[in-house]
Amino acid sequence: MESSGGSEFDYLFKLLMIGDSGVGKSSLLLSFTSDTFEDLSPTIGVDFKVKHVTIGGKKLKLAIWDTAGQERFRTLTSSYYRGAQGIIMVYDVTRRETFTNLSDIWAKEIDLYSTNQDCIKMLVGNKVDKESERVVTKKEGIDFAREYGCLFIECSAKTRVNVEHCFEELVLKILDTPSLTAEGSTTVKKSNIFNQKPPVSDASTSGCC
């Protein structure tokens, strides 16, 4: 995978990173976009980074949204699911509750808020550099991914193992999905995803009381 500068690109894809606070979403994103690792403090609300890459012979502009894992930001982040072609669910292999919450919380959020039926989901087990502290087995990750129809990879933001591979595999799958490439094509008129505003109140995002 090569980075390609310039403003000319074939597709603009919106990717969303979700998961509990402290699982390493921001560190993964930083590792991918700037080739460095930092132990970052929790994201407040939503952050995003842009990366130009060439994958599968296509020049792509990736807008990657990094959402806060804390519950108090949930209503804020719900609006950012709209129009995402790819969603990355991250858990920490050394903290079981971050894995359990994928099905208890995050998979339900995707069902509630994702607007793309064909949206590609990727399950990422982070922090494999702490193998001696691992409590979630690779098989559990594979089984979860199979049940929820996700791609699956284990990686380490710290050592950069599989970080690029994670994003590359997700994007290749999006490129393989005609409905998503049509939506991401630069020839299609689309709303500016950088100007999204969070909902005014809870009522505007929930379908019921």
Name of the level-1 CATH class: Alpha Beta
Estimated radius of gyration? 16 Å
Architecture (CATH level 2) name: 3-Layer(aba) Sandwich
CATH homolog superfamily: P-loop containing nucleotide triphosphate hydrolases
Class by SSE composition: alpha/beta
Subcellular location: Cell membrane
Main location: membrane
InterPro entries: P-loop_NTPase, Rab, Small_GTP-bd, Small_GTPase
Organism: Artemisia annua
Structure description:
The protein is an alpha/beta fold and 209 residues long. Helices cover 30% and strands 23% of the residues. It has six helices and seven strands; from the N terminus they run ββαββαβαβαβαα. The chain has helices spanning 25-34, 74-77, 96-113, 138-148, 163-175, 178-184; strands spanning 2-3, 11-18, 46-55, 58-67, 86-92, 120-126, 151-154. It has a seven-stranded mixed β-sheet, with helices on both faces. The N and C termini lie far apart (46 Å). Mean pLDDT is 82; it is low at 188-194 and 199-207. Intracellular vesicle trafficking and protein transport. One of its GO terms (biological process) is protein transport.
